[in-house]
């Protein structure tokens, strides 16, 4: 049975809305929601879900897929409790419900190619362009760069890993670096963390972390299918964080972390990554010293799973 523990995160029993999150701090998808809750200043109850064992029936009733996070939201004492799954949709729910700096206001700095006119048509264009830029950034990272996490895990020699690091850094330089040209300091010129950072940090790390922490025999056919589709769905910071932190010489080569933060070759990306990795809303649930040894312990299973064909 999956063991759970519950804790209260600064909330009172009679406080509304009531938020309960079923989570695991090693999971990048959960990390995305944790960052969002922290940035919005929302109190919540946390239920820890053990990912090393099959999910108990009570959890499968909440999410038949057996995946975390599961998010429950009760607006008022008389409201029905909403149960949400899938981190990208949970983040969208929260950012729609609580407009904030996570979805920046439209300014000429956020959409530099649009007219500064306050005309309604130009505002509509600016909003659409900003959404496009945010979506394009997230999709570019996960479709171009994120797959290298799994290629690195499956590499059969240090030489192969070194070649993959070269390719990954080249893609960051070509595809991601130009998209951060106006980061000041965060995406699109925002002075505070945005939904792009929330999404970007989570994706790469969480997918590997979630499945590497599980026994391969415990993966359902649906979860095996899910491992191939996750690369194109998630947001970013939890995943760039893990990509960097996994470069410890055992999981990934140390050269990966060094080159990701090379301020000469990747000045925009390196500055942005350093800020994101140090942000309090990012670090408060990520315990590198605890999770890295667990990943190393399961590395042979992960290598077999992602071995180059």
From TrEMBL:
Residues 17-102 form the GST N-terminal domain. This is GST N-terminal domain-containing protein. CDD domains: GST_N_family (cd00570). One of its GO terms (cellular component) is cytoplasm. It comes from Vermiconidia calcicola. Pfam families: GST_N_2 (PF13409).
